[in-house]
Design goal:
Elements: H1 18-24, E1 32-37, E2 40-45, H2 71-92
Antiparallel strand pairs: 1-2
C-alpha cells in the first residue's frame, strides 16, 4: 500500500493527492462522503445516480404491484431513502 502525507491547514483543509484524484476521477465540485470509522477518517467519492433511460428493465415492473406504490413513480424516492439509511449506518459506526 502506498502512502501520501498531507498537511492540514488552520481551517481544517487538506489536499487530496493528485494520483488519488486521478485514479478516482475526483474533479472540482464533486461531492465526497467523510465519516469516522473507529480511529480512522474515511473519505469516499459520492456517486451520482443517473436517471433511468427509457430502455431500463425496471420499467416492465412499473404498475405491476397490487396495493403497493408504483415503482416508476417512487423509484427516486426509494433510492434516496436507501442512501440515507446507508449514510446513517456509516455515521453510527
Amino acid at each position: 500500500m502506498n502512502y501520501n502525507i498531507v498537511k492540514v491547514t488552520s481551517k481544517g483543509q487538506m489536499t487530496i493527492p493528485h494520483i488519488i484524484r486521478k485514479k478516482l476521477n475526483i474533479k472540482k465540485d464533486d461531492s465526497l462522503i467523510v465519516y469516522l470509522q473507529n480511529d480512522e477518517i474515511r473519505i469516499k467519492k459520492l456517486s451520482v445516480v443517473e436517471p433511468l433511460g427509457d430502455n431500463d428493465p425496471i420499467w416492465k415492473f412499473a404498475g405491476t404491484l397490487v396495493d403497493e406504490p408504483d415503482v416508476a413513480e417512487n423509484h427516486d424516492k426509494y433510492l434516496v431513502m436507501e442512501e440515507k439509511k446507508h449514510l446513517e449506518y456509516k455515521k453510527d459506526e
